[in-house]
Design a protein that fits this description.
Layout: E1 2-7, H1 20-27, E2 32-37, E3 50-52, E4 60-62, H2 64-77, E5 82-92, H3 95-101, E6 106-111, H4 119-124, E7 128-131, H5 141-152, E8 185-186, E9 189-190, H6 193-196, H7 200-218, H8 220-224
The chain binds adenine.
Length: about 230
């Protein structure tokens, strides 16, 4: 899978992909991430990519020309299955969207800044708009990093049995059950006996019950979705 990211702050995206699972995905050749500085396609030698809003109001808007040039240039060498704009007014990211996107071959992510990007780019080029939650970040970069992480770890071969995504929270619309490691008695607080029983069926049933209980208590909305 190849993911291109268009940003005005490429430095912000150096570290998130250099560690842990995403590093492993890159090292194994399962995921290629390319970060492109939008200023390469700026409208003048000052590197301008934003301008005042028509109609007035505080905050700059990212101009259509640099974005269109960038998307067109990158599309020459890649056929994108989706061109995704990271924005707080997009559809809210969840595990099902991450699963869907992990099956695509080629994605282009656009990170917005300031008051966002000119609406005409959204109308003409963007095929999907994604938010990572109901709060506003200062730019789309951290949101793009979250999306790439959620997708990257699902690519076949990235996780091994021990880290398998099958038992993650949300994978079956349930939160994950509580987890324990050694010692069996931590300052008087004990690991549930069942987990020490060695009976795989009982343990699986207990985990499922705990998942249901936790989901009902913390995220009852998940139990109502299909
Ligand atoms: N850009 C700014 N805030 C964002 C959010 N919550 N999700 C995605 N992109 C964003």
């Amino acid at each position: 899978m190849k993911i291109d990211i268009l940003t005005v702050l490429p430095e912000l995206l150096e570290s998130p992909f250099a560690h842990s699972m995403l590093k492993r995905a890159k090292d194994k050749g399962l995921l290629e991430i390319r970060i492109h500085n939008l200023r390469q396609w700026a409208v003048n030698e000052y590197g301008q990519i934003d301008d005042y809003q028509y109609g007035g109001g505080a905050g700059m808007v990212m101009m259509p020309e640099p974005l269109a040039r960038a998307i067109e240039a990158l599309s020459k060498d890649n056929s994108y299955s989706q061109i995704i704009y990271m924005t707080p007014d997009g559809e809210r990211l969840n595990q099902s969207i991450a699963n869907q996107l992990s099956m695509q071959e080629n994605l282009l992510l656009i990170c917005g800044h300031y008051k966002g990007i000119d609406q005409r780019i959204r109308d003409q080029f963007v095929t999907r708009e994604i938010s990572i939650g109901d709060y506003v970040l200062s730019g789309g970069e951290l949101a793009a990093a979250v999306l790439v992480d959620a997708i990257g770890r699902l690519l076949p071969g990235v996780l091994n049995d021990e880290t398998s995504a099958l038992f993650d929270s949300f994978q079956d619309n349930l939160l994950a059950p509580p987890a324990y490691t050694r010692p069996a008695d931590f300052r008087g607080s004990k690991v549930p006996d069942i987990l020490l029983s060695g009976d795989p069926k009982k343990i699986e049933d207990w985990r499922h019950e705990e998942s249901l209980r936790r989901t009902a208590a913390r995220r009852p909305d998940l139990l109502e979705e299909d």
